[in-house]
Amino acid sequence: MSNPIAQSLCDFIAESPTPFHATQNLLKLFTDAGFEVLHEGQDWSIEPHSSYAVTRNDSSIIAFRTGADLTSGIQMIGAHTDSPCLKIKPNPEIRTHGYLQLGVEVYGGALLHPWLDRDLSIAGRVSGLNDNGEIVSELIDFKRPIAIIPNLAIHLDREANSSRVINPQNNLPLILTQQEDTSFEQLLLQQCRHGVVKILEYELSCYDTQVPQLTGLHDEFVSAARLDNLLSSYIGARALVDTESDQAALYISTDHEEVGSSSAYGANGPFLKSVLERITNNPTELTQTLSRSLLLSCDNAHGIHPNYSDKHDKNHGPILNAGPVIKINSNQRYASTSVSSAKFQARCAEAGVPLQKFVTRSDMACGSTIGPITSSQIGIETLDVGAPQWGMHSIRETAGTQDCEYLYKAACAFLR
Hints:
Elements: H1 4-14, H2 19-32, E1 36-37, E2 51-56, E3 60-65, E4 74-80, E5 85-96, E6 99-107, E7 120-129, E8 135-141, H3 160-163, H4 168-171, E9 174-177, H5 184-191, E10 198-208, E11 213-215, E12 221-224, H6 227-242, E13 248-254, H7 271-279, H8 283-291, E14 294-298, E15 301-302, E16 325-327, H9 338-351, E17 356-358, H10 370-378, E18 381-386, E19 388-390, E20 397-400, H11 401-415
Helix pairs in contact: 1-6, 1-11, 2-6, 6-11, 9-11
GO molecular function, one term: aminopeptidase activity
GO cellular component, one term: cytoplasm
Keywords: Aminopeptidase, Hydrolase, Metal-binding, Metalloprotease, Protease, Zinc
């Protein structure tokens, strides 16, 4: 099954082990397409029929085209750059029985068992001093397996398949090496090649080095880390780059969604509102613009697992490769309304894109997205959609190859 969107998604994910790397690669995608880079600390001169991009904290990004007239409304696509993972602690070194280990903290709602027995690497942002004594930051990526969290043999825990519980403090420290003279700080300095000569702080994540790839007998599936939510982040960005229209459009992908979005860089922060205030002329114009705008909150949905089909409402179990999913929740865990859903369905029908609907079982708790947060922050009509996937929040997730194409076509139709 040939699918260039799915294959290019794999390439993007492979080069984006952290939100910092994802944002860097998204920015390059936009600048290669002619988007002008803006900086929040500088004056902006926004022109009609022009395209711009701006980042915050190196981990969140907004890109937009002004079209003919912003006040006619802006079609927006929103996603997030972060994924559940293990993050290195500030003072991580643990020396036990001749092994150098690194302590980690669980970020977000990660499935922990899949992190065991994986070939792990480390990537992220390092901040420190350069040769002139100035504070600088740079991204690093070891790009090879340097750590592992071994499982405990079943001979030492006969109940492992029925009752093993992972204690994050005791059972997740990485094993790095047996060399006694190895210092983690020295290892980091060896990776710093763009200015940092003295490390003051870092934000580092572990990741699985197994490459993303198409799987299944006929390449029906995409298997990769961080599909939630780099799939939506990449496809939404590609759609904005690949569409030309007089319709104003905006793309945003923010950090910290997996931990509630409450940061200066998350969807519950001021980033999007600040940009919108700067590209409109006054509060009245902004309100008028938002009243004519629509946000497509793109985040993956739970596809029905054939081995656990009882975990779904039998009338709302999305199938992989059967089209994007409209996510609905009467308690506003998703922001979809009948009006926003109808508008999107009409666009998808014109583009020949099939759609599905997801409602969680009435006796189970429902997750959420940036949709309700952004909608309540700026007062924009919103729809929650996403490609169906398996294994959400695992170290390796699975989505449908054809759904990548479907979501891309839907996003392009939405932005035109």
